[in-house]
């Protein structure tokens, strides 16, 4: 298998992401993690940009022992001097020097003719040779450069002493077929091309950065430039973790591989996200929070039977602990049962079915059903008190200038429907008075408490009540995303227990096997 070199520019092009500014210590921390990851070449910054960046690149050059350390320069002597100053202490220093070659950049930005661009590139590479044995030359905006001129520039760079020639798609304009064709053309037409390495540097303006990098590899590129998490100027750069995992996962296709330590990918992604403040989108390939998470029942069932049904690579390989089966409204019984078993519940098929019905009702109201939600739901639902009264609907009218009122509708065990309305000191009081009227039970509310059993705005509220009737005292619990509904459920639960207690004596909390 052919080795593909990874050139990481998180600390240079990545730092060009608007809002990102890494200090020296942060650059060193990321660089050391990149070294652990096994990155071959680290572009640590643009030393001519500021004294701070020069110091940052220099600190990286001193700290990292097992990767080439690179600084970027325009085709100007003072930029090249600054790079040498910054990287001369590295074990393996390298210069990256560039000039734009496309007609748009030549005309509007550089205001140079073709021959002036060639002269500037030649002069820069010649000057750099007084310091560097390794020089990468980039033809900025190569993607929009006339192919014959790009061949001419590449030939000149090789002749003058560049050891790597980079073909940047600076503005992310290329499609894979076009970009691949540039590499093919250079390979076939430029004299001396076999003496150097060809490199690809892509941007993601059209979402094609990784696809274009892979097309370059398929057409002979030796090196891929990119960043961790794909951060970088505008829409960002090629994500190196995507390239590495695409080559690994489809090795039969590419016959090429990187030599990185896959198990460090996730850790590196987290560190870069933390220090740059660039949040990784949940659906980001390889390192996004959802990259190995499955929510729908059919997928979860497949995953439980055989992971390869829905995963083309394993999360453990990149350092993620395990795949996640997320319970939500699309989940099915297989995943639900598995989750209950993980939480330590051993339930009969019938109990699973009852709980599953309740879980689906809850999932319709909540985005994510957490472990705490599930535990609350199981503990509430599987304690089998005969339900003499079942809550159907509640209507509450509340205004800070009016008396709260509530209308409730209950079903009875015999199939009847009871509907009552009442006013109260507050909404909960109105609900409880309406329930009293409907059930005709004379009870006293001895205690009422409410707590949140999960997190976030759509958290479940759990209400706990104690009702008294003569010598009897019973507890009731109700759970809902709405606290008024939870209050009504708790009250009715207690009334049902009271009726049951009157009939059967001591309380029964049976049919629930919690382990
Ligand atoms: C595609 C890329 O990612 S390229 C890298 C982008 N990174 C950066 O720009 C790093 C941060 N940059 C900086 O700090 C500053 O731009 C500096 C210090 C490099 C230069 O600052 P200034 O001297 O004030 O110039 P300014 O940035 O305004 O303009 C760029 C100048 O460089 C010229 N230039 C641009 N690219 C090159 C090049 N590769 N070689 C030679 N000259 C170049 C421009 O034509 C312009 O020249 P002009 O002043 O004669 O018109
Ligand atoms: C400096 C070069 C390589 C660059 O970042 C680009 O062209 O995108
Ligand atoms: Mg770039």
Automatic annotation (TrEMBL):
<keyword id="KW-0963">Cytoplasm</keyword>
<feature type="binding site">
    <location>
        <position position="201"/>
    </location>
    <ligand>
        <name>Mn(2+)</name>
    </ligand>
</feature>
<dbReference type="Pfam" id="PF00682">
    <property type="entry name" value="HMGL-like"/>
</dbReference>
<keyword id="KW-0479">Metal-binding</keyword>
<keyword id="KW-0012">Acyltransferase</keyword>
<dbReference type="GO" id="GO:0003852">
    <property type="term" value="F:2-isopropylmalate synthase activity"/>
</dbReference>
<dbReference type="GO" id="GO:0005737">
    <property type="term" value="C:cytoplasm"/>
</dbReference>
<feature type="region of interest" description="Regulatory domain">
    <location>
        <begin position="390"/>
        <end position="515"/>
    </location>
</feature>
<feature type="binding site">
    <location>
        <position position="203"/>
    </location>
    <ligand>
        <name>Mn(2+)</name>
    </ligand>
</feature>
<dbReference type="GO" id="GO:0009098">
    <property type="term" value="P:L-leucine biosynthetic process"/>
</dbReference>
<dbReference type="InterPro" id="IPR050073">
    <property type="entry name" value="2-IPM_HCS-like"/>
</dbReference>
<comment type="similarity">
    <text>Belongs to the alpha-IPM synthase/homocitrate synthase family. LeuA type 1 subfamily.</text>
</comment>
<feature type="binding site">
    <location>
        <position position="237"/>
    </location>
    <ligand>
        <name>Mn(2+)</name>
    </ligand>
</feature>
<keyword id="KW-0432">Leucine biosynthesis</keyword>
<keyword id="KW-0808">Transferase</keyword>
<protein>
    <recommendedName>
        <fullName>2-isopropylmalate synthase</fullName>
        <ecNumber>2.3.3.13</ecNumber>
    </recommendedName>
</protein>
<keyword id="KW-0028">Amino-acid biosynthesis</keyword>
<dbReference type="Pfam" id="PF22617">
    <property type="entry name" value="HCS_D2"/>
</dbReference>
<dbReference type="InterPro" id="IPR054691">
    <property type="entry name" value="LeuA/HCS_post-cat"/>
</dbReference>
<dbReference type="InterPro" id="IPR036230">
    <property type="entry name" value="LeuA_allosteric_dom_sf"/>
</dbReference>
<dbReference type="InterPro" id="IPR013709">
    <property type="entry name" value="2-isopropylmalate_synth_dimer"/>
</dbReference>
<keyword id="KW-0100">Branched-chain amino acid biosynthesis</keyword>
<dbReference type="InterPro" id="IPR013785">
    <property type="entry name" value="Aldolase_TIM"/>
</dbReference>
<dbReference type="InterPro" id="IPR005671">
    <property type="entry name" value="LeuA_bact_synth"/>
</dbReference>
<dbReference type="GO" id="GO:0003985">
    <property type="term" value="F:acetyl-CoA C-acetyltransferase activity"/>
</dbReference>
<dbReference type="InterPro" id="IPR000891">
    <property type="entry name" value="PYR_CT"/>
</dbReference>
<comment type="subunit">
    <text>Homodimer.</text>
</comment>
<feature type="binding site">
    <location>
        <position position="13"/>
    </location>
    <ligand>
        <name>Mn(2+)</name>
    </ligand>
</feature>
<comment type="function">
    <text>Catalyzes the condensation of the acetyl group of acetyl-CoA with 3-methyl-2-oxobutanoate (2-ketoisovalerate) to form 3-carboxy-3-hydroxy-4-methylpentanoate (2-isopropylmalate).</text>
</comment>
<dbReference type="InterPro" id="IPR002034">
    <property type="entry name" value="AIPM/Hcit_synth_CS"/>
</dbReference>
<comment type="pathway">
    <text>Amino-acid biosynthesis; L-leucine biosynthesis; L-leucine from 3-methyl-2-oxobutanoate: step 1/4.</text>
</comment>
<dbReference type="GO" id="GO:0030145">
    <property type="term" value="F:manganese ion binding"/>
</dbReference>
<feature type="domain" description="Pyruvate carboxyltransferase">
    <location>
        <begin position="4"/>
        <end position="266"/>
    </location>
</feature>
<dbReference type="Pfam" id="PF08502">
    <property type="entry name" value="LeuA_dimer"/>
</dbReference>
<keyword id="KW-0464">Manganese</keyword>
